[in-house]
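Example 4.3 (complexes with small molecules)
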Amino acid sequence: MRYLVVSDIHANMSGFDAALRESQGRWDRVVCLGDVVGYGPDPNEVVDKIRELKAVTIRGNHDKAGSGLEDASDFNPVARSAAIWTKENLRPENLDYLQNLPTGPVEVDGMSLVHGALRDEDEYVFTQAQALDGLLEAPSPVTFFGHTHIQGGFVLQGDTVEPLRLKIPLDSKFAEIAIEPGTVYLLNPGSVGQPRDGDPRCAFAIANLDAKKVEFWRVPYDIAAVQDRMFKAGLPEPLIMRLAFGR
Ligand code: ZN
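Answer. The structure with zinc ion bound is encoded below.
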């Protein structure tokens, strides 16, 4: 089975459309690591599409805040105002869908799915030290995580954790890694809708564990169109600007 692995779509339908278009025919099922909404202008369109695809989806912190499960009091002011806008604009059935998303980790076909860390859905995994606990306790050889919006992740071999170094040049679409036996992987597909690793292209992954490989993708999308919809929706300017920089 081939899985399209998406995370942190953040209500960016142009980014999600580009990911689906470019990856067409290369996967059988979709898994989503949360933060379906928040920040972006298209919460209903993205939730509708996730539901239509029957994606196996776990909740992220922005899904909790945007659906009213949490009050966003621990968010910065810009994120909080976007969460309030999201809650006001989601249709009731989509609010209900987000409120009922499961908490990670969820196991699918030998992979674990989490939003933040294995032991805490809201915890960020940025460093090798932060990755180690999860890697040592991981229920599956391959765990996918999101939340940081940074494509890549960490690899545990023996007792050594190394960051996964990926480089996907502008003239190519993906880089492939081999899944080796005796190795534990904590992999981040990157963010579909708000990349923060310096590459503004939409990020996602395609996992084919039967063939023991994972592809990390980057594809361009119409950033200006999303920025225009955000501007018209009155979403905060820093959120509009950052899309162009991928930061
Ligand atoms: Zn996020």
